[in-house]
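Continuing the batch. This is chain 6 of the set; chains 1 through 5 are on the previous pages. Same settings as before, nothing changed between runs. Recording input and output for traceability.
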Amino acid sequence: MAELSTLARPYAKAAFEFAADAGDLQGWSDSLAVAAAVAQQDAVEKLLRSPSYTAAQQAEKMVQICGDSLSSKALNFVQVLAENRRLQLLPNIYQQFEVLRANREKTLEVTVTAAAAISNEQQEKLASALSAKLERTVNMQVSVDSNLIAGAVVRAGDTVIDGSIRGRLAKLAEALNS
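Output for chain 6:
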């Protein structure tokens, strides 16, 4: 999949720079989210891979399916992608656009998986500690997994903090076996 992300990168950067200059990051994000979701549908994937449809026909079908969810600038973007036979890259383009947007807005999506429910007060303390440590605004999603035994696992981008008993036992077993 490295190839797809490499191919998608210049389109994502171009869309991001255009959206940032226009001051419409949220609008572009919404449009790209819809287009990416449509492009991931099985029937649409077949359409986009089919050599029997011209680029214009593929763009027209995408625009029809997306309807009014795309801005006029996003419609032009979809047409450019179609002309270059890159519509299948829309999910990757959207993903990279969101990473660029998060970096610009200094936000980070964090998932916390805990062995037991975490109170609102604990969530606020954890969010503020992570915000200070990571120097970003943290949007936190919390879930419960009783298989962790105790503790929690925090995933923030590429960073994973495993404070669970299960994780510690796995590290101990690995140390003993090596």
